[in-house]
Amino acid sequence: WGVDRGHITNNPIATFERAYRADRAEMIWLPEHVTAFEEAASPELRLALMLALHTGQRQADLLALPWSAYDGKAITLRQGKNRRAVYVPATTALRTALDAAPRRATTILVTDRGTTWKKRNFHEHWSEATKAAGITVDLHFHDLRGTAVTMLAEAGCTVPEIATITGHSQAHAQKILDRYLARTRSLAEA
Fold first, then answer.
1. Tell me: the pLDDT tens digits for 129-162?
2. Longest CA pairwise span in the chain (Å)
3. Distance CA 39, CA 98 (A)
4. Which residues contact 159 (CB under 8 A, 6 or more apart)?
5. C-alpha angle with apex 69: 63 to 74, nearest 5 degrees?
6. Residues near 122 by Cβ (< 8 Å), separated by ≥ 6?
């Protein structure tokens, strides 16, 4: 920040190596994980799962997603992290779920009391539901984003189509596919 703004000439930590790099490329929600979660989770968390799987959006964007972003056919939003405008055509399953969901607040995802989720509260409830579902693999909500990329590829979408829906760069979408698709049984069987 200081170098970028001309306050200092050299970045004192530019030569430091990162002590830790997270690589969750191998983590994907398999159909059995989704089914177990759906059986154990509340309706509010099942809707969050549905939105994540069918849009490939980040948790923060989904928690803030207003009903006005859904027109009955698609979801239109501007992503918070990179400010990309994204248009996501709703699948039949997502339309069915959204059309059946009660509109208790301005945001789509709400608590059982009808209030907007706070990040920490959502994380706690999500973790509890994952544990109750008996999911012992270290799966996180964010792993649904890569799962969505994989599902789109399995449905026949091209890398540019996937990147348009999820908001990834094409290069990053391809990188995800290179890692995830090698692990999917349906492609191996095909």
1. 999 999 988 899 999 998 998 889 888 999 899 9
2. 58
3. 19
4. 170, 173, 174, 177
5. 110
6. 48, 59, 63, 109
